[in-house]
TrEMBL record:
Protein name: Uncharacterized protein
Biased composition (Basic and acidic residues): 114-127
Domain of life: Bacteria
Species the sequence originates in: Micromonospora parva
Stretch list, region Disordered: 76-136
Entry keywords, A to Z: Coiled coil
Any coiled-coil regions, as ranges: 193-227
Keyword Coiled coil: yes
Amino acid sequence: MDAGQGLSTSEVQSIREALAAGRKPRVVFTAAAGQIAGQVGQVIELTDPEVSDEFVVVRFGRDELPFSPADLAVAPKGAGRRVAEPKPEPEPETPPAVAAPEFVLDTPRVPAQRQEEPKVEQTEKPPARRAVKAVKPKGPAGLTVTLAYADGEWTVAAQQGSKALAKPYVVKPAEALKMVALVDVPGVQEAVEQILGTERAEAEQQAEKLRAELAEIEARLAELREAR
């Protein structure tokens, strides 16, 4: 498998079966993964590919990050494993040599010079750079348009996220019926027509009442004019 081609569909299915069996397959990062190309990690989970293209979760050191199949390839056998180094055999101990007695006449003793142990400077290794994943830009907040009916009035309001774009304002019943006609939801248009029918009947009754009252007032006015 060429480490620059990414995982194929059959290899992703093999990884899914291995995870179901309790194994954690090893993968190697391709050049598409950026600065960590050539490193070896373990697949620990496969998420839903319909939600994101980066659905292969890989453990790399102490990090667990999602990658796309194009960022990974099946690791060759033996990749990422440490080979045990053979321990050196101990050398046979030699008995210390016994010095012969030395006869010295009037020989002054010279103190042995103290040998200083060589200083070993310890250099701190720079911390390993953590793999940086590109953050996808956040999409705009959702837009909500509300058509409401209360106390004999139709109102429309608009809100985006937590921000109110338009406060509830009154619209005509005919405009409300046109808005509802754009929404093909069973039962909604019937409910609106029922509300408008009830309002229409109440308005006609009130108009008839006002006409009767107006007729009485006109008749009374005619009588007063004749009495002049």
